[in-house]
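re the bet — no i am not wrong, look at it urself. input seq straight from the record:
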Amino acid sequence: MEPIIQIIQLLVLIGLIVTALAVVFFKDLISAAIALGASSLLLALQFYLLRAPDVAIAEAAVGAALTTAIFIFAIRSTDRKEGCK
């Protein structure tokens, strides 16, 4: 494998770890849903770099786009009760 591809894969994996940690540590649900979408998009890029373009397209369509949109729509349609425990 070419060294540039390995460097890109390493950067994508570091980005995956950072976005996964962001999902866990964000308090705001919208921010967490967007970070989850970014994580799915990075995972789709990793699949593409591993020469699985069909899996990458499915992950980008379902994981990054559809799931993120459903999460944001569901979060927006609920009432916020800040301060209630």
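see?? The two ends are 53 Å apart (CA to CA). told u. also The mean pLDDT is 92. so pay up
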